[in-house]
Amino acid sequence: MEDFPAPLYGENEWIYKKGRGFIPLGLRDYLRSNGLAYNTVWSIGCPFHCSYCGNTKCIANDSMYKKIRHPSTDYVVNEVKAAVGRYPHISTICFHDDSFMPIPYPQLEEFAVRWREAVNIPFAVYGVIPNYVRRDKVELLTWAGMNRVRLGIQSGSQRILDFYKRPTPVEKIEAAVEVCASFSPRTIIPPAYDFIVDNPIETKQDVVDTLELCRRLARPYTMNLFSLRVIPNTDLEKAMREEGVDIEEISSNYITLPPTWSNIMMYLLALWRPPRWLFDRLLKRVEPSGGPQKHYPVLAFLFRLLFLIKRGFDHLRFMDFSTIPGYFGYLCWKTGIISGWRKLFDPRPQSLRRKDSIGMAGVRKNQDQEKREIEAGLTTLLAGPPAPGLSGEARRVDEGTHPTLV
Ligand code: SF4
Fold first, then answer.
1. Mean pLDDT of all residues in the chain?
2. Which of 90, 165, 256, 283 has the smallest number of CB atoms closer than 10 Å to its CB?
3. Which of 44, 48, 164, 398 to mutate to test the pocket of ligand 1 (most atoms within 8 A of CB)?
């Protein structure tokens, strides 16, 4: 990976526009698509094998795909610096890695130290798998500048998680959420949790289990809701065929949800935890996902609007325009509002509690070591200690698939 050129960004890129053909990508296009964010990945690979995920196909093609690997910290730092050099308005870096958190602590520490020294721009980490969330890692990354995490939950029903072949037991999800939520709202934007809804095999109990989990989750949080769609050739496609269920493919819209009672309750729960008596009354109206049910378009619109307003406010509080596209963020950057705000209200912890912090000398030592290993063609397994409290399958996953540097 070290030998690959950095992704192309901000030069020699073209976009097709109706009536105009291919024209060079300009500032306006970047702002419209990405707001003030630069999207990238540092590591690739994922040890899991969730049935709905396109990764299953990558793993079927090459079992080595399970291994998490990444280029050096210098590589990613230089990539980001080059992008910012071309477009200085970039104010948040979004890492779309499938599994950032399993990267062992020493390598994350090296990344954190280099990032804070050389880039010093807030970053978001997507693709956080609950099994790998550890307080020390989150603490370290927030010190480096992490201002947002996105974690895959998908369902609160153990039956549905098993159906998805996702070894993330509900207790592990709650423990991970507890850690993430404890950093918000002071240090990070309320963490975002992904849920898959509208799975036609979900019974009423499965839907209720997910709603119950949402009610229990430590606050604050926000969520990304997706209607279940099938990626062709995945295990999910096969499983659905076996169930005799025909659902739409990934190319159809999966963001606009049907305005069902349970989807409305998901938005409500992200805003507020209702008292038990009221929650029980609301649950009575829940229907199985696959069955016919009443739709509430006006109510769904209102709750979604409130949800989006709250979410927008949470981002503005951090002057984060990674999910708010358009010119407004650019104006805030141009007029110095973003830099001024961030100087005044820097949410990062100013020091790390960890005593054996490696510092820059350690970073260089690790980089030299890494280089030597790559040159010698070694595959090094750098396994960190498993997350405290892991048991059963989650523990085996944590121990058995810690990332490999290749
Ligand atoms: S953990 Fe995420 S990236 Fe990995 S297989 Fe599951 S859905 Fe895909």
1. 88
2. 256
3. 48
Strand partners, 69: 44
The model's pLDDT over 218-275, given as tens digits with 9 standing for 90+, comes to: 999 999 999 999 988 888 999 999 988 887 877 778 888 999 999 999 999 999 999 9
180 within 8 A of 191, measured Cβ to Cβ:
yes
Pocket residue to mutate for ligand 1, from 41, 51, 52, 55, most atoms within 8 A of Cβ: 55
DSSP 3-state of 201: coil
Angle at 176 between CA 173 and CA 178, to 5 degrees: 110
Tally Cβ neighbours within 10 Å of residue 118: 13
User: Mind listing the pLDDT tens digit for each residue in 293-308?
Assistant: 999 999 999 999 999 9
Nearest to 144 by CA among 119, 164, 177, 168: 119
Model confidence at 350, pLDDT cuts 50, 70, 90, reads confident
CA 295 – CA 372 distance, rounded (Å): 61
Q: With the C-alpha atoms ordered 254, 172, 165, 211, is the resulting torsion angle positive or negative?
A: negative
For the beta carbon of residue 86, count every other beta carbon within 10 angstroms: 12
User: Tokens 């430590």 map to which residue?
Assistant: 218
Residue 284 one-letter amino acid: K
The Å distance, Cα 53 to ligand 1 centre, comes to 6
Q: Which amino acid is at 99?
A: S
Token readout for 186 is 């002071």
Cβ(181)–Cβ(220) under 8 Å?
yes
Q: Is 153 in the pocket of ligand 1 (CB under 6 A)?
A: no
pLDDT of residue 368: 62
State whether the beta carbon of 53 lies less than 6 angstroms from ligand 1. Answer: yes
Dist. CA 177–CA 208, nearest whole Å: 19
Does the CB atom of residue 370 touch ligand 1 within 6 A? Answer: no
Question: Which segments of 182-259 does DSSP mark as H helices, in order?
Answer: 204-216, 235-243
CB 319 within 8 A of CB 91: yes
pLDDT of residue 36: 98
Q: Which CATH superfamily is domain 36-395 in?
A: tm_1862 like domain (3.80.30.20)
pLDDT value for 366: 57
Contact 199, 162 (CB under 8 A): no
